[in-house]
Amino acid sequence: MLLRVENLVKHYVSGGFLREKEVVRAVDGVSFTLSEGETLGLVGESGSGKSTVGKTVLRLTEPTSGSIFFKGEDITKRKDMRPLRKEMQIVYQDPLSSMNPRMRVIDVVGRPLEIHGLVKGRKEKEEKVSELLERVGLSPDMMYRYPHEFSGGQRQRIAIARALAPGPSFIVLDEPTSALDVSVQAQILNLLRGLQEETGVSYLFISHDLAVVRNVSHRVAVMYAGRIVELADVQELFSNPLHPYTKGLLASVLEPSPDARAPEEVMPGEPPDPRNPPPGCRFHPRCPYRFEPCDKEVPELKEVEKGHWVACHLY
Description:
Elements: E1 3-14, E2 22-34, E3 39-43, H1 50-57, E4 65-70, E5 73-74, H2 82-85, E6 88-91, H3 105-115, H4 121-135, H5 152-164, E7 170-174, H6 182-199, E8 202-206, H7 210-216, E9 219-224, E10 227-233, H8 234-239, H9 244-251, E11 302-305, E12 308-310
Helix pairs in contact: 3-4, 3-5, 4-5
């Protein structure tokens, strides 16, 4: 097991001297595992806590509580994360905003190599960056250009090359294709699959696009209001969704057909305010199957079928 997350919690405190302090429950008890060479899709509406999970797992933001085991070590107790940074990387939604506009690609991609002492001298750095650019489908002579000189798809390839540079075993992909058009999306997804087959790297693939997640994931976890409500193999989840929220998400996706009609409203209302979530099941104010325990007791994520986990009082 490469990664095991147990009861991960991340709360933010807002307010201060002139305002009453409020606790924002961005992530509120998330648990999952990730095997070597596996892609776990993490889906849910905006504000559900997906990106916070990704950043907290990497300890780019510190967890409030919970445990994160990476290769058997609880890294929440580790004081110096730098030795693990070459093992754990991230690719952001907007690659341009994550790159220094004054740095050429050779330095954008080559910086991790220098930080981790993987190259010696300019010539070796050029050779390694050239190899990385070729691996992501770019010409080596592009290394002397600046990020703004590339298209969105090319910039994302550069971001992937930078993430691959230190040879990681785990990459968080935070909405890596959402800013790209469909044809470029397909190219990037094919690239990610090919790199996984070649290197055995594991992905936590964060997205709100169910079609993309279905295309790239081995398993899928569905988040709602800071918690995972369902987790299953990708084919099982899409063919046999159990949680009412998952059913609503899938029902809201338009079929690619000229005769398709907009779906009827299957989930009335809005996600809860993370500063004041409802008691019990957080989905119960919108749930068509709500009954007495739902607004009082918090449902635990439990295995109701082999490999299919659900947090719902119906099961």
